[in-house]
Write a structure and sequence with these properties.
Distance between the termini: 119 Å
Largest sheet: 3 strands, antiparallel
Helix content: 55-70%
Number of helices: 13
Shape: elongated
Strand order of the largest sheet: 1-2-3
Order of helices and strands: HHHEEHHEHHHHHHHH
Radius of gyration: 42 Å
């Protein structure tokens, strides 16, 4: 299809010749009337920004080049339309003044009919043979500098490696966030708030995320039931993790129950009666 061959260059809109072509178009009364109906005068209040004008100009060029490529013939690097003239470009592009503007910047010549010089350089894709020849030429030039071009298979492998590295980095970041969240739960539950940094390092070194639920449950149970913890002898958090204290039995406090007399009298009264 016409248009598939066009090399859409991102820098085309900023090309110096496109900018010069914009100036030539805006100097044409017919083009200004086409661009902003009723705005053919220089002081009509209908203003178009320079960037917008370059966008319009680029679109007109693409349309012109597409039609020319479909109907023209190559003579060397030039594209020739033998039965066309500069003014016919306006019909191809769909706007007045485009042909003269292209002629002004050297993108159209009134020779052999209509000639678009050096058209093949930017607007025709290379064949497979031409691509191979270009690759060999660049490879040969780099070999003189002690360098080599990457092959397609190497480029593909490199792309796969890059994706895998990116995936590994994302997984590491996610794991880091998860570890930070589980350690935060442990730290909030632990009664002693001393030595957070060594405790975090110990948590990460021992990879305790999988045991987080068990550890946090043990900490909460000890804070309520362990005799030594209730007396204020809580180990340093890093020590607790290093020695895996959650595997130890909880030293529960002894509960002393006072005897109660069966007749409702206190034990002391019972002894006195005896």
């Amino acid at each position: 299809m016409a248009g598939d061959w066009i090399k859409m260059r991102g820098a085309l809109i900023d090309h110096p010749k496109v900018i010069a072509m914009c100036r030539a178009l805006m100097a044409t009364r017919e083009f200004r009337e086409w661009l902003t109906p009723g705005g053919s005068g220089h002081e009509n209040g209908q203003i178009v920004s320079t960037h917008a004008l370059r966008c319009v100009t680029t679109a007109l060029l693409m349309r012109c080049w597409s039609v020319a490529r479909e109907h023209g013939k190559f003579v060397g690097d030039d594209l020739v339309l033998q039965h066309s003239t500069i003014s016919d470009i306006d019909e191809m592009a769909g706007a007045p003044g485009v042909g003269r503007a292209m002629q002004t910047i050297g993108w159209a010549l009134d020779a052999n009919g209509l000639t678009l010089p050096n058209f093949i350089e930017f607007n025709v894709p290379l064949t497979n043979a031409e691509k191979q020849a270009d690759y060999r030429a660049r490879q040969k030039a780099l070999q003189h500098e002690g360098k080599t071009l990457p092959t397609r298979s190497n480029e593909k492998a490199q792309n796969v490696t890059t994706r895998e590295e990116k995936r590994r980095e994302e997984n590491k970041e996610q794991e880091h966030v998860q570890r930070a969240a589980r350690f935060k739960e442990f730290w909030e539950a632990y009664p002693s708030k001393k030595g957070k940094k060594p405790a975090r390092e110990k948590w990460q070194a021992k990879k305790l995320d999988e045991l987080a639920d068990t550890i946090i449950a043990d900490v909460k149970a000890r804070a309520e039931q362990d005799r030594s913890w209730r007396d204020g002898f809580v180990p340093n958090p890093a020590t607790y993790l290093h020695q895996e204290r959650w595997t130890d039995e909880i030293q529960r406090a002894n509960v002393i129950q006072r005897p109660v007399a069966t007749d409702g009298q206190s034990p002391a009264a019972t002894r006195r009666l005896a």
